[in-house]
């Protein structure tokens, strides 16, 4: 066996994993037009059930103004819950564990994908460094509507209802998506949150919405089946913060106090624009299971686990093209590189047609 440290069992709160290789949340846009998971998604997740833990793609918690693509899945309707149940049953039948990543897109959404509803955000600041795909082709992101303080309990309630639906769908827990420039991350970072009042200004105020959502999920699942993802450095979706280290320390301290199952930390910036060490302050403040991702090789992953820094490592793009990633890492086999042209295209090509190794 290669990289043996990755193949020891580990507990993340109430979750028992047989190995330390976690499948990252990977948006693939294979749900139907009503955001209901499809049968091909059942096959896709079941193919990857050997992962120590699967994190689903970002899954919409609220209907109306939270879709950022035409075919990402939701978990706010009965039809979506029933369809996700097929996924969780298939993963469990192969001995896997799967968490639902709960998500709201905030200003990364577009009215053309939400029946004309204006996107919402902590402040009326649009994404300026990219355009988004819509039914009418690529369009600039829109200026979002600033959420009122009295609307935020409704956002929290939406996440709570989605957590309840995830239980009904047979998931093993949930991960709260507080990363990558979506709504909860937009509140966290001062580059996108320029509001005043109880949800703006100081770090404690900017973190308030994320922590209220975490508390809501814990009320449904218990702390041992709730994880949180953050990305303090990632500039994706036109994001930045003036002090990502202080932000990381505060959020990690508050999550540690809640005793959640794990903190899923994205250690770097997709585009290399913002640099810094957020792993050290996260490890110092969070005493529970720390997961980390972004660019780990199997050798580096083993070193991080063997040293005790990380409980497990989150693998992203290689899980697109290596459904048997666990077996390949164990065997020391070469990893297949994914075809980026098929990341979001419909059908099985580049989705369920990557073969397992001989």
Can you characterise this structure?
This protein has helices spanning 39-47, 78-93, 152-168, 183-188, 203-206, 208-221, 244-258, 279-285, 298-306, 317-321, 325-331, and strands at residues 10-12, 15-17, 21-23, 53-55, 59-60, 98-103, 120-121, 131-134, 137-140, 145-146, 174-178, 226-230, 262-266, 289-293, 312-315. It is globular and about 55 Å long. By secondary structure, the protein is α/β, with parallel strands linked by helices. 30% of the residues lie in helices and 16% in strands. The protein has eleven helices and 15 strands. The protein has one domain (4-342): TIM Barrel. The strands form four sheets. The chain has an eight-stranded parallel barrel, surrounded by six helices. Strands 1-2 form a two-stranded antiparallel sheet. Strand 13 (262-266), helix 8 and strand 14 (289-293) form a beta-alpha-beta unit. Helix 7 (244-258) runs parallel beside helix 8.
């Amino acid at each position: 066996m290669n990289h043996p440290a990755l193949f020891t069992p580990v507990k993340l709160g109430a979750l028992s994993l047989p190995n330390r290789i976690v499948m990252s949340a990977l948006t693939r846009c294979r749900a139907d037009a009503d955001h209901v998971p499809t049968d091909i998604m059942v096959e896709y997740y079941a193919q990857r059930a050997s992962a120590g833990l699967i994190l689903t793609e970002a899954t919409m918690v609220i209907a109306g103004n939270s879709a950022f693509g035409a075919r990402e899945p939701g978990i706010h309707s009965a039809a979506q819950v029933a369809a996700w149940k097929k996924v969780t049953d298939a993963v469990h039948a192969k001995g896997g564990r799967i968490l639902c990543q709960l998500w709201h897109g905030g200003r990364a959404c577009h009215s053309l994908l939400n029946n004309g509803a204006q996107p919402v955000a902590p402040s009326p600041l649009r994404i300026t460094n990219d355009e988004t795909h819509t039914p009418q082709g690529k369009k600039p992101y829109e200026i979002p509507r600033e959420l009122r303080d009295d609307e935020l309990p409704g956002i929290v309630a939406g996440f709570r209802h989605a957590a309840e639906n995830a239980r009904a769908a047979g998931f093993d827990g949930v991960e709260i998506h507080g990363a990558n420039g979506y709504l909860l991350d937009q509140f966290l970072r001062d580059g996108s949150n320029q509001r005043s009042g109880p949800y703006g200004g100081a770090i404690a105020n900017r973190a308030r919405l994320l922590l209220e959502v975490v508390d809501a999920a814990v009320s449904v699942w218990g702390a041992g089946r709730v994880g949180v993802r953050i990305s303090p450095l990632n500039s994706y979706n036109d994001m930045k913060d003036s002090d990502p280290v202080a932000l990381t320390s505060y959020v990690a301290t508050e999550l540690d106090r809640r005793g959640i199952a794990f903190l899923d930390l994205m250690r770097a910036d997709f585009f290399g624009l913002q640099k810094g060490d957020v792993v050290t302050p996260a490890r110092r403040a969070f005493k529970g299971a720390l997961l980390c991702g972004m660019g780990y090789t199997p050798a580096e992953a083993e070193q991080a686990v063997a040293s005790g820094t990380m409980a497990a490592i989150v693998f992203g793009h290689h899980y697109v093209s290596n459904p048997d990633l666990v077996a390949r890492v164990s065997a020391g086999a070469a990893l297949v590189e994914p075809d980026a042209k098929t990341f979001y295209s419909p059908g099985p090509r580049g989705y369920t047609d990557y073969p397992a190794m001989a």
